[in-house]
């Protein structure tokens, strides 16, 4: 069902009684009274949007317009320009790139942000403060008309899990130097790992018109082997997530295990292990905040920006068998074991 939405680039208006098509002939439909939510997406519908829609579906008086940028900044700019004509009651944004494009930064807000007329709920933003979307997640210190959900498990927690894996002295992190959130992830992991006695080395991935090149990843893996890297870390970055299968195939063929900060590379692309916040649950949490705004007339700035408090351990059993690297039994007991056939419909 969701797969059919993933390729949508044009505007698609949906009544939440059906995620696939609007049913304006239903006796329960009243477009004039319904609340209009516009969803600005970067790489199609993910499990985060499925969770958001499923939760919002409990309210029959809400309709949705999906605007998918399809990883194109020009398309995104056109979608943002179209918001005035669409007159939404609330805007949902996916990821740091979309959110910064719509709102700007704290020291350079956009016209849309400065007007404060339309509330925004952002989702799947790795570091709202580090990305300068907000100065504080505390609602008492914010006057802007937006709130949101961060999906990243605290780096201290991730590092503790990495330490549980065994003899990990050096972690190599692949990152996208063109994306601010990816750089922040690399720098933050470096700082936290240093405090925990683990070395971190950073390896910038070259972006091409087709995504990434295998030769670039192969070259970086050679560097990692020369640097005695014990484990490769995949941060929350759309470029790396979209190309995770290419990355994991090359990394694993070199005998190096992978740790993912997000769920999709483990399920869809064979990354070995991770402790993650599930996209679906993040979507539900974002919907909870949206409902507070739409049905309770709560000002978005009065709603705290939060991360999920419940994390999931996931281990890809096929990858563990492939590379001969198995997490300790104590970790396996509390982990969800997945196989490469157990894929989500969208990354």
TrEMBL record:
The lineage of its organism: Bacteria, Pseudomonadati, Pseudomonadota, Gammaproteobacteria, Vibrionales. Keywords: Signal. This is ABC transporter substrate-binding protein. Residues 1-22 form the signal peptide. The keyword Signal applies. PANTHER family: ABC TRANSPORTER, SUBSTRATE-BINDING LIPOPROTEIN (PTHR35271:SF1), ABC TRANSPORTER, SUBSTRATE-BINDING LIPOPROTEIN-RELATED (PTHR35271). InterPro entries: ABC_transpt-TYRBP-like. It comes from the Bacteria.
